[in-house]
Amino acid sequence: MDIELGxxxxxxxxxxxxxxNLPVLLPTIMSSTPWPYGTVExxxxxxxxxxxxxxxxxxGIYAMxxxxxxxxxxxxxxxxxxxINGTVELFGKVIIHEYGYRAQYGRVTSLSDIVDCSMCRQPxxxxxxxxTYLTIIVPHQVRPIxxxxxxxxxxxxxxxxxxxxxxxxxxxxxxxxxxILATAxxxxxxxxxxxxxxxxxxxxxxxxxxxxxxxxD
Length: 217
Known about the structure:
Shape: elongated
Number of domains: 1
Structural class: alpha+beta
């Protein structure tokens, strides 16, 4: 069933991050392209001649009928960072599926201040001082400028301590805490990846920046 008029409030998850020093919402898997600020218009990257969304294609802006954090978990073999939950307004042409929607237009309407531990996926409030944050910095050369993507990983106290305990022999041989946490999260270490611990206040500031950029009228 397609809806041509009106709008729908639906649910999404993103990954907390930064790109070129601006706080952004990143997709939970696959693409590294940030969700744009303001209203987003869907484009089909497979058949550019049709107007997204189209039946029989995968194009469109995706969102769920129910909160995805209640019944959807990204497999542990796909570590992607720290989830942030929210709602989006979908409008224009909307195609209804069993569990969600694909829409022509969308915009962020609310963001939760609850994030998931990147290991156990248990929820914690930003600013609760119960999380240790690790920033993965990935420089990427895009002519004519160099862009930098930062992905935030969060570790609850229990998971952080378990990772440190498991790697205590490596710590004795000079492996740093940030490397231990990155390994525990399944981050593939490459020469272009840099690691740094991020304070709770920095993440809170990033979250407030995301709210201003995405929720402002």
